[in-house]
Amino acid sequence: MRQKLAAGNWKMNGTADALSELNELTQGYPEASVDILICPPATLIDRASEAAAGSAVAIGGQDCHANVTGAHTGDISAEMLRDAGANYVIIGHSERRDDHGETSELIAAKATAAYNAGLIAVVCCGEHLSTREDGKTLEHIGTQIAESLPDTANADTTVIAYEPVWAIGTGLTPTLEQIAEVHDFIRAELVKRFGEKIGNGIRLLYGGSVKPANAAEIFATSNVDGALVGGASLKAADFSAIIDALVAA
Ligand SMILES: O=C[C@H](O)COP(=O)(O)O
């Protein structure tokens, strides 16, 4: 039985004031039957970790460097995230792939760095609209996960987030059939590569315009073990409604 996960990605949003939303969330979930994760900007990770201590909310980073230390101005290592109190890190978000030219090979190296630091890697994949319109979604997702996951990936260290790029921040979502098709495909690919135990153990999140209004139906979809939420994770009330939908699923 896979433990469900509601993950919030604050992206480049939030200064110290935003911790009030986190405080509201932690007060609402001193404990929970699902895993809850907030990935604030790097500048807030240590304060967020302190604020979330003793609650059901875990804290994660939004990216890490593949190396442990070195001359990489502006970058943050997985060890540094761990040191600041993070337990997870998002790797290979489409905004990193598109804005920073990150390749799947680099993403696999970052995932290994996350494992070595004791972090759970939330590895993202997803197609652009043109790829979907060309009928190449599954081929694209298959290549991305094959290349972005290290051979050492396992169910304790790895979560996959399927995020169609065209659904991120747009209010558009795939049909439930389209979500199920991709999630079932990813599950089958994982089982093929890693075997039944690991392949069936790795959690699969859906991301892209998840809101309180559509969360329940998405969580009832085949092989959806939770969500990676952007905009609707910024307000505790909205994210709480999504968490509650996951608990009820
Ligand atoms: O990481 C989160 C995703 O990119 C989804 O963002 P969104 O919920 O604002 O569409």
Describe the structure.
With 249 residues, the protein is an alpha/beta fold. It has one domain: TIM Barrel, CATH 3.20.20.70. Helices cover 43% and strands 16% of the residues. The chain has ten helices and eight strands. It has helices spanning 19-28, 45-52, 78-83, 94-100, 104-116, 129-133, 137-148, 176-201, 212-219, 236-248; strands at 5-9, 35-39, 57-61, 88-91, 120-125, 158-162, 203-207, 226-229. The protein has an eight-stranded parallel beta barrel, surrounded by seven helices. It starts with a strand and ends with a helix. The structure holds glyceraldehyde-3-phosphate. Glyceraldehyde-3-phosphate binds at residues 9, 93, 163, 168-169, 207-210, 228-232. Residues 9, 93, 163, 168-169, 207-210, 228-232 line the site of glyceraldehyde-3-phosphate (G3H).
Can I get a quick summary?
The chain is an alpha/beta fold. It is 43% helix and 16% strand. It has a single domain, classed as TIM Barrel, CATH 3.20.20.70.
The number of domains is: 1
Uncertain residue segments? none
CA-atom Rg in angstroms: 17 Å
Which ligands does the model contain, each kind named once?
A: glyceraldehyde-3-phosphate
Architecture in CATH?
A: Alpha-Beta Barrel
- In spatial order, strands of the major sheet run 1-2-3-4-5-6-7-8
User: How many distinct beta strands?
Assistant: 8
CATH fold label: TIM Barrel
What is the secondary structure topology, with strand pairs?
Elements: E1 5-9, H1 19-28, E2 35-39, H2 45-52, E3 57-61, H3 78-83, E4 88-91, H4 94-100, H5 104-116, E5 120-125, H6 129-133, H7 137-148, E6 158-162, H8 176-201, E7 203-207, H9 212-219, E8 226-229, H10 236-248
Helix pairs in contact: 1-2, 1-10, 5-7, 7-8, 9-10
Bound molecules: glyceraldehyde-3-phosphate.
